[in-house]
Design brief:
The chain is α+β, with helices and mostly antiparallel strands. The protein has one domain: Aminopeptidase (3-Layer(aba) Sandwich). It is built from 4 helices and 6 strands. The chain has a 6-stranded mixed sheet with strand order 1-2-3-4-5-6, with helices on both faces.
């Protein structure tokens, strides 16, 4: 865990408020509007998660303030996604602290490729080494969300 100014970042998935994460991703995140809770649960269970908390989550009295998720094979590739700080906690440098903590995490130092996608925070990510990539090199398949 990392602590600063009454806030904590934890990678312990038992500390996560999955309902709060799901509500934000479903209702407020431009990249996942309408996402079913089951999909969020499945994504969290297969990822390295970073919960940002107002307080210490190990005490049981912390409130989720933000979140970031990394999908990785642990050796060659990592994808940073679902990064957010809840509106009431913005403009305090918490997003920068969260992204910096993710970028410096010891388990994420060996991957040859560490990617992300953003439409509005490239300046933040550039502070930690991400560079704009050639958009002609990326391809995708887009499918609607399904909860099986």
């Amino acid at each position: 865990m990392w602590a600063r100014d009454g806030f904590t970042i934890s990678t312990d998935p038992s500390h996560l408020d999955v309902d709060a994460i799901w509500r934000f991703l479903r209702d407020e995140a431009y990249w996942s509007t309408g996402i079913p809770r089951e999909i969020v649960e499945r994504a969290i269970s297969s990822s390295l998660n970073f919960g940002l908390f107002d307080g210490d989550p190990s005490t049981g009295r912390a409130t989720l303030a933000g979140f970031a998720r990394v999908v990785t094979d642990g050796a060659t590739f990592a994808w940073l996604c679902d990064v957010f700080v809840l509106p009431r906690y913005r403009s305090r440098g918490l997003g920068e602290w969260l992204v910096g903590t993710v970028a410096a995490h010891p388990d994420l130092q060996v991957q040859r490729m560490f990617v992300l996608a953003t439409r509005d925070a490239s300046g933040l990510y550039a502070k930690f080494g991400w560079e704009a990539a050639d958009p002609g090199r990326f391809m995708r398949i887009v499918r609607p969300y399904r909860a099986d």
